[in-house]
Amino acid sequence: MAAVPPPSSAPGGPEAAPSPPLQYSLLLQHLVGEQRRPRAWDPAALGGIPSPPKSEEQKMVERAMESCAFKAALACVGGFVLGGAFGVFTAGIDTNVGFDPKDPYRTPTAKEVLKDMGQRGISYAKNFAIVGAMFSCTECVVESYRGKSDWKNSVISGCITGGAIGFRAGLKAGVIGCGGFAAFSAAIDYYLR
């Protein structure tokens, strides 16, 4: 027995239209182009651990840690530690530590060298602490005032801090300090973000 061929459509009848080819440009527009829709990532939907609601104590601690006073105090302490370490390091590589200009041929004792290193470390620590507290406090105040967290906050607070530090030496030094500190803040913010 012979196999019967499948029936063909009658001549002049409607034929099945072939499916249109997949257009990759349309697909890319939906995946990475302008028609892409942002997705809200919900950790609970992805199998994450849901967090319980925060207690009043947790909310109070969060508010305290996000306050400008806490941020300024933290920057002050961090600046003091970093400045002290930097001061001791620079005193360690300075060849004039413990040097007496009245008697240039006398070798300084270890006590004199350590005393000079300590004085330089404390001096650097105080300066770094003041600059860190001023910058952090002004950045927090500017961010609170503007209601945004972007690179402009650090540039504005850098200008305020640099201008305040430089203004002690005159108007020109204040303007240069403002510009220099703002540029440095912008560069650091650009690098870190």
Give a structural overview.
- The protein is 62% helix and 0% strand.
- The protein is built from 6 helices and no strands.
- It has helices at 24-31, 56-65, 68-93, 110-146, 151-166, 171-192.
- Helix 4 packs across helix 5 (151-166).
Based on the model shown, name its key terms:
193 residues, mainly alpha, 62% helix, 0% strand
Label the structural class.
mainly alpha
The outline comes out as elongated
**Major β-sheet, in short?**
none
> Which residues sit in consecutive blocks of at least 5 with pLDDT less than 50?
none
Number of helices: 6
Straight-line distance between termini: 78 Å
Summarize it.
Helices cover 62% and strands 0% of the residues. With 193 residues, the chain is an all-alpha fold.
Helix-strand blueprint:
Blueprint: H1 24-31, H2 56-65, H3 68-93, H4 110-146, H5 151-166, H6 171-192
Helix pairs in contact: 3-4, 4-5, 5-6
